């Protein structure tokens, strides 16, 4: 009543690990050693048959048990029903031993327990061990692949964390620069305000000085008018005296002296006007130079801001390209693993078909020999 099932297609029998009654401590209680259900249903080999199991008590009793290897687990139960009496995981640390028709399974995950079974023939026992060893090796291979994929995921997450920290650091530096620029602008505005207040104070002082000057000018005008009247009187007296002078030479000398005095005073007025014009021109040049410097400073600050914006955009583009490349690489790896699994399933189906054809040919040959013998 033994039948080796190597069909890797999913069977809708409704049996699950819990439906088979797997006890606590089985392989289903260790998710880190397990593969997804679709991998178990299509990848692991299966076997079903009757074996004798040694009792766990002090008296050696062998019971007939229906044994099933399915989803990387060895399950046994009564022939009358499919409810499991026990199960054990086919892990990589199990130890298998065979002695003729007898074979044993030492399972460290079951507190180091050893289970003894007996098949009908030595070949049957060897076949059971081969199926269990094949399941164990495939389970270990899947576990290694999952561990490697998990390490790659962790490495990718760590790299993303580092990139995020670097980005936050750059944001903090940028915020510091913004604060510094804001402080500079505040200081500059404060300086402008102080300059305006100083200019206002200078204007007020100038107005006060002008007011005092106007009073001094009025007082000086009165003094000058009195002096002018006195001078006119003296001039009239001098003219009267000159008319009385009979010498033409003295009159000519006086006229020359008067012309010299008038020319000297006119030259002094012209010189003072030129000095004032030169001072005004220099002040205008200084003001134009200051405006040019401010314009250059604003242009330099604008260029720096544009450079920071271009740098941030380049960083964002590089980060997005890197994320796309990582996602594409992970998708390519997953597609390759699925392709390899399908390829292995196809090869197993071809082998099963060949084995079935060989069995049918052997059965036909035996039937033919039986007909010849009876004939």
Give a quick rundown of the structure.
With 375 residues, this protein is α+β, with helices and mostly antiparallel strands. It is built from three helices and seven strands; from the N terminus they run αβββββββαα.
Structure write-up:
This protein has 375 residues and is an alpha+beta fold. It is 68% helix and 12% strand. It has 3 helices and 7 strands. The radius of gyration is 57 Å and the shape is rod-shaped. It has a 7-stranded antiparallel sheet, with helices on one face.
Features:
about 375 residues, alpha+beta, about 10% strand, disordered N terminus
Radius of gyration: 57 Å
Q: What would the average pLDDT be, to the nearest integer?
A: 80
Assembly annotation: single chain
The SSE string, one letter per element, is HEEEEEEEHH
Unreliable residue runs: 1-40
Helical segment tally? 3
List the helices and strands and how they pair.
Blueprint: H1 37-43, E1 47-54, E2 62-70, E3 73-77, E4 84-89, E5 95-99, E6 102-107, E7 113-118, H2 122-243, H3 248-374
Antiparallel strand pairs: 1-2, 1-7, 2-3, 3-4, 5-6, 6-7
